[in-house]
Amino acid sequence: MLGGQPSRVLDLGCGEGHNQHSDLSAYVERVWVATDQWGNQESCTQTIYFDRLHVNEIELPADVTVNCSNPTTGPAVTGTPYAVFGALHIPMYPDAGFCELQTAYADQILPVCDGTHKILRTWTIYDWCLPTQVGVNPVYWIQVIKVLDDQGP
User: Are strands 64-67 and 139-148 parallel, antiparallel or unpaired?
Assistant: First the structure.
């Protein structure tokens, strides 16, 4: 019979590591217990490490065009900064669960013509574990969202 104890999740502070693994965000310890038919037990500990993400590893959203008949311009529709883990794309906004990296945005609306406008969405990604440095941390990204009226009356 194979069983286990509840996993223990340990968040690490900036610059911390564990078991000679550095630059970690967290790790999980799982204790597995095997019991044979006579009641003999053996256990082992499995450790899963989560590498810390850095601002330069975050993918940024592309410019998009939406039609004014359905002018939904929220980040869930137009895209957000995201982290890539294999085939998974993990959005960094609104709450990605990466304590060291925070993401926010601000919109500036620019009128163009009747029924059309552009939104300059400025994304800010800040790494709490790195010093603030112009051009490095935080990262600023401007995403252009064009709301277009291309249908005639």
Answer: parallel
